[in-house]
Every structure is written in C-alpha cells, then in structure tokens.
Amino acid sequence: MADAKRIQRDLEALRDFSAPGGEGTTRLSYTPAFRKAADYVLEQMRACALEAREDGVGNLYGLRRGLDPAAPKILSGSHLDTVRCSGYFDGQAGIVCALEVARMLEENGVRLRRGFEAVATVMEEGARFKNLGGSKLAMGVWGEAELDGMQDDDGITLREALRAYGLSGNLACVCRRDEPVRAFLEVHMEQGSRLEREGIDLGVVEKIFGCRWFTLTVKGVTAHPSTPMDQRRDAALASVSLISHMARITAEQYAGRATLTVGRMSLYPGEINAIPSRAVFSMDFRSGQESCFEELDGILERECRRTEQEYGVQAQCELYTYTPPTPCAREIVTALEAAAEKSGSSALRMDSGAGHDAMIFALGWPVGMLFLPSRRGLTHCKEEWTDYENVARGADALYKAVLALDRE
Ligand code: HGY
Ligand code: MN
Ligand code: MN
C-alpha cells in the first residue's frame, strides 16, 4: 500500500522549495527554487533504487529496469514547476505518486518485465516561458528555434536560462518520441470540484481540453484625464469593452463548452492621471471541441474590429500558443478504471478542463490520467488541497495499473 506519511513528507518538502515572498508556492523553471526541488526529486529517485538522470533541458527521469530490455516501458509522472503563488499538489502529486510506485515495487521485490520510469517535467506551466515546454522538447515538438526564439519577462532566452541553470541545452538526448513506450500515466489534481461534489475517489480522464492563448495589444493615445470621453483614444476602456464583450459571448453562447480567462494585463504609461495609450493582455480559451476554438477566433477578430471603430484604437491579436483537445488512449482509460476498482476506489470517467503534459506525450505514446479530488475545486492558489490519503489512493491505483500493463 502507498504510504500517506511518506507522500506528505515529499509534498511538504516540495512545498517549501519556493521563491521567497508571496503566498503559496512559486517555483518557475530554471530558478534556484526549481533547482532545489529537482535535486530533492533526484535524491528520492536514487533512494528508491531508480537510475536517476536530468536531460539537457531539465526534465528528470528515474528508471527501474525491467527483465526484458526490449519491452516498451511504462512512464509516469507530471510537472515540477508551478505558476506564481500556487499550491503544492498541481504537478507535484503526480511526481510523488510515481516515486511511491517505485518504492512499492522495490519494497515488494517486484521485478517488472517492462522498465518503469518516474518523470518530472520542466516548463509545464506558462509562467516563465511558453507552456508544456519540457514535454514538447521531449517529444521533438520544440527544437533549437524555441531555445533562441522565446524570452521570459526579463528578456532572457530559453537557451540563456538553460546555460545559467548549468544545463547544456544539448537536445541530442532530450527527444524520446521514437522510443517504444507502452503508456505514459499521469496522476493529477482534478482542478475542478466534480469528484468532491459527487463523493468519488478518483477520476479517469477520457479527454483533455485544448488550450488556446492569445496576446492582445490595444493602442490608443496618451492624454490628460480631463479629456472629454468622446474625444479620447483610451486603450484601457477599449480593452475593458473588448474583454467584457468576449466574456459575455463565451458565457452566453458557449456555456459548458468553452471558457475565457484574462489573467495578465498591463497599461502604459500606468499613471493614475494619464489615459493609457497601450494595453497588453492575455486571453486564455479552453474547450473540448476544436470547432469552438475556430468559432471564437472569428468572434474575437470581429470584436477587435468593432472595438477599433468604437474607440478609435488599434487592436492587434497574436496567437501565443495552442494545444488542441487530446483524447486519452481508450485501452489506458480501461486499464486505469480497472486498476481503480482493484485498489478499492470508486472512479468516474470525465474530461480534464486543464491542460497537461499528457497531451504532448500523446503525440507519440498511449496516455492516461487519474484525477484526485480538489477541495472546493481550487487550484493555482495557496488554498489548493487534497488529503494525503487521496494522493495515496491515487498511487495505489497507479501501482495496480502498472502491474496490469506490465503483464500485457
Ligand atoms: O494551464 C493549465 O491548464 C495547466 O495548469 N498547466
Ligand atoms: Mn497548473
Ligand atoms: Mn498541472
């Protein structure tokens, strides 16, 4: 059985590898806090007899060799980075569950036919560079161009960040897409409240919603706040109008099918007594249907033109990143459902509103996800929580799934 106390020890250790100040846990990729967390995970991997390594871009792997070196491996894990002021379960619970499975295999003296690898990825959150970066480099979706073509808020390129972190950025041994892998399994918080509301122990994910991020720039003219309302080109008021129109359309016409979030916004010059001439803000769309993204693209374009007309501004909309809705592999969904039952947990098939590395690993391998209940559905905040016993339940089901997939 998975040990909830050991799981608690790992999660609370990871919780404290955080940038100073602010609420909750902040662990952006390639920062000192991330280095400490990575060293802790590597140490825990070695402590449970895994051959631990860090690839050229900061992804961590811990291998337990199988009896048949030619048999496609089973990988399991999640991401080690967080958004700012986050909790300490998002991503981390999946890494700890994979470590716990490795411990149980070792303690029970189980020699699998297949290799088993615990995985901790980097750059899953888009907090510093674009999102899903560690898995995209591992699957060859990103390459040299992204190392030089992406900068963080301080103008540091991904390649510079890697060098400063002490990594080569040598991609030769990073891409694993062509490796034969039986399954990539990710245990993760639901980041919604359905499991809690319905009193279900575990979710078995069938589809992971797509995620489409835009950067919008609205340009007007800086002037004095005493400028009459009908004589100004106010980038802030124009942006508020554009956002409120898009939010109303999404809520009314795409209820239950899509969501819109504006998480970042900046105004220039940013003085109380100056009409802003520039607003730059993000739009994050989520949906399980590609058609919704296509329709919302058209609506956004139309709303940008309306805003330009109405406010005498320029509204530019740039696609920042897009990952389409991704199904989990049917046979892995079935295997996880059976494993949940075998480990005595109730389970519910459901979709994931949040994005995950599993979407990228699915480009080359069969993937599946197990969800843990999120208290009040809260996540990406210090209130993020699930009981350690729930994480142990996830680890037990993961363990049963690994044993079953090993026998196939
Ligand atoms: O953005 C997401 O869906 C996830 O938290 N990376
Ligand atoms: Mn997250
Ligand atoms: Mn996550």
- Number of helical runs? 12
Helix content: 25-40%
CATH architecture heading of the largest domain: 3-Layer(aba) Sandwich
Mean pLDDT: 98
Number of domains: 2
What shape does the CA trace take?
Answer: globular
Proportion of β residues? 15-25%
Give a quick account of the main beta sheet: strands, pairing sense, barrel closure. 9 strands, mixed
Order of helical and strand elements: HHEEEHEHHHEHEEHEEEHEEHEHEH
Question: Which consecutive residue ranges, at least 5 long each, have pLDDT under 50?
Answer: none
Describe this protein's structure.
The chain has 408 residues and is α/β, with parallel strands linked by helices. It folds into 2 domains: 288 residues, Aminopeptidase (3-Layer(aba) Sandwich), CATH 3.40.630; 114 residues, Alpha-Beta Plaits (2-Layer Sandwich). Helix content is 36%, strand content 22%. The protein contains 12 helices and 14 strands. The strands form 2 sheets. Strands 1, 2, 3, 4, 5, 6, 12, 13 and 14 form a 9-stranded mixed beta sheet that branches. Strands 7, 8, 9, 10 and 11 form a 5-stranded antiparallel beta sheet that branches. Strand 3, helix 3 and strand 4 form a beta-alpha-beta unit. Helix 1 runs antiparallel to helix 3 and helix 3 packs across helix 12. It is globular. The mean pLDDT is 98. (2S)-amino(hydroxy)ethanoic acid binds next to loops.
